[in-house]
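Let us work through a complete example step by step.
Step 1: write down the sequence.
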Amino acid sequence: MKKLLLLSTIGLFVFGLSACTNDDPDRTNDPTDDELTEYTLTELAMYDGQDGMDAYIAVDGYVYDVTDDPNWEGGSHNGFMAGQDWTEEIGSASPHGSSVLSGVPKIGIIVEEDDTTTETMYFTITELSMYDGQNGNDAYIAFEGKVYDVTDNSNWSGGSHAGIDAGQDITAEIAGSPHGDSVVAGLTEIGELVVDKTGDAPYDPYLYLTLTDLAMYDGTGDMDAYVAVSDVVYDVTNSAAWTDGTHNGNSAGLDLTDEILSAPHGESVLDGLTIVGEIVAE
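Step 2: predict the structure and record it as tokens.
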């Protein structure tokens, strides 16, 4: 029954197009392909006949203007919406195929989406915080060093999702969630999270290290010396207090949270050290 209703709807769709045809089935007056405007399917979707936009449809790789067709008033016809490719529906519903479009202005040709990669953008934590989805700002989040755009994601309406606000690094929150990194699947990656050590130097990648990764940064050989405190990773490579990766019996490459917090000066001993990343779960 559902299949019958669908075929009936498609039949009405084709009939409506046929109703506005003329006696020019070979379309000899159409512009050549070189004269047609190129549209990707993404661009075609903008021409849906809504909010003052023209109404275009695509069939067999060509774009047709149905803006002034009375059958497409408001950008829809018998349940079919403008701004889409209706090749399959036309082909399956009519023995004449796209010839039913004779008389509908052919204005364009469908081309492949431009897959040219855009230049990677870099964000510090401070810069990321400006993209909180509030007061007209876009909404970005960071996960494991990558920055994602959630501005138009319905799950991030108003710049928040499940109590988590946009404009911040949510690696720890995602790592502890039941779905893990699957929650970023399908999101648009737009850049990388970085830290500017000097304010003038080029950005260095912001690191996400497991404790196993951290252990490699022990200050021996040619390795830098990093330590972790409260899941934040600090670079002590050039600190005079950390000669050869050791300080007061403590070695670099380790999580020293307990040692630092139990020290007389607490975390104040970290003042002036460069934050290079954070600890994530194994």
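Step 3: interpret the result. The chain has seven helices and 19 strands.
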